[in-house]
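Minutes, project huddle
Topic: does the predicted pose make sense with biotin bound?
PN asked that the exact inputs be recorded in the minutes so nobody has to dig through chat later. Recorded below.
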Amino acid sequence: MHFAEIDSTNNYLKDRCSQLPHGTIVSADRQTAGRGRFNRKWVSQEGGLYFSVLIKPQHTDFWPNFTQLMGLSLCRAIEKLFSNTYLKWPNDVLADGKKLCGILSEGVLSEGHLQGMIIGTGVNVGQKTMPDVGQPATSLWMLGIQADKQALLQDIMRFFWQDYPAVEKHGFAAIREPYKKRFPFIGKEIAVRNGEKPLFGTVRDVSERGTLQLATANGLEEIYIGDLIV
Ligand code: BTN
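Predicted holo structure (tokens), as shared on screen:
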């Protein structure tokens, strides 16, 4: 399904989750109420690729790892166009140190059960300028790459479905190696923010569960959610 304009592709799937099958994809040229992580707004002007995928996993043990799978799939598709593309845990994609893609995943609960999960993705493709979003952002166009949004979406989803069964079965362990290969922050000093004060430390690893292991002044911390400040 494709729309010229929509409020948010995530909202569309959220409102229709029970009627739509696993694997439904909805995309749009513009969003009037695009949303990002931590209640942030996701400015969605013409030129960007905005899409959401509805998944209905067999069980819920590994649900955060599907978002990381989408991050990896984005990175794999985009690195073919621009080589200095990499992951920033948990699931941002950066190019030349600037944000190129973001993912907002949302679960849909019904009577206490997870009915489905929506993985909403924004990729800065053809925008000529990027709004000030509190962190440096770029687009493929600004990097000198002219990409076809439809072909890019197909490539991203090909990578996603290729590893989906393994992630459904084994979680992050199934994609840990290719993920770590694209995550250049191991051994680096960083800060992680998740609402409260930032936590400072040295990145030790990304665990079998997809969590970030950070060596801090108080010992090794396992981080489940947050924003990396690098
Ligand atoms: C982030 O904060 O980095 C995540 C941004 C996610 C934006 C995408 S665009 C398609 C989908 N619809 C939304 O409203 N948000 C996601």
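Observations noted during the meeting:
- The chain has four helices and twelve strands.
- The chain has a mean pLDDT of 94.
No decisions taken; revisit at the next huddle.
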